[in-house]
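user: Kindly work through both lines:
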Amino acid sequence: MDKMFDYTLYLVTDRGLMSTEILETAVEKAIEGGVTMVQLREKEASSREFYDQSVRIKKITDRYGVPLIVNDRIDIALAIGADGVHIGQSDLPAAVARTIIGREMLLGVSASSLSEALQAQLDGADYLGVGAMFHTGTKQEAQIVSMEKLLRIRQTVRIPVVAIGGIDRGNAASFRKAKIDGLAVVSAIISQPDIKDAAEELKRLFLEGVTV
């Protein structure tokens, strides 16, 4: 994978949390606010519903030149020509996923420990989603990753690292010192009354490392 990607502000969707009536509106507002990558995550949707939603979202991300990543569903990612797929530790092994999608698609892998991070890198991951950094309602069972562990992962692996889990305007600036590549956010963007403003603020806090 030779192409460079901007992971600075990585939106993960959740239709159950969005403040807008339809997901397309939420995604477009988030991109207008500075989101640099979008992951479509639909755990409750049927395959057909997920596919149809993916096609609609991809029209928006393509228009703005923002990469679209599909969570878990490699078949749908391939079907719509997504830029990549993101898998967790309980999904298909990363090495198998890489074999299926080839070298041209991005492969993101969730990791909550240094050993998982190193294995993902070995298996061909292009980037890591490390977390959960804080308790989050979107994944209540997620293991919490300390800032120290995040720093160790960042210092050890060669691929981009994105922090995820409970990140909001109150803690976004604290990640600047970790020298990670970006923040993955769900409710702190998609649930807000003004999605565009929320995205702009989070991006500024992370890039400038200043507190609110």
In short: The chain has one domain: 9-108+127-208.
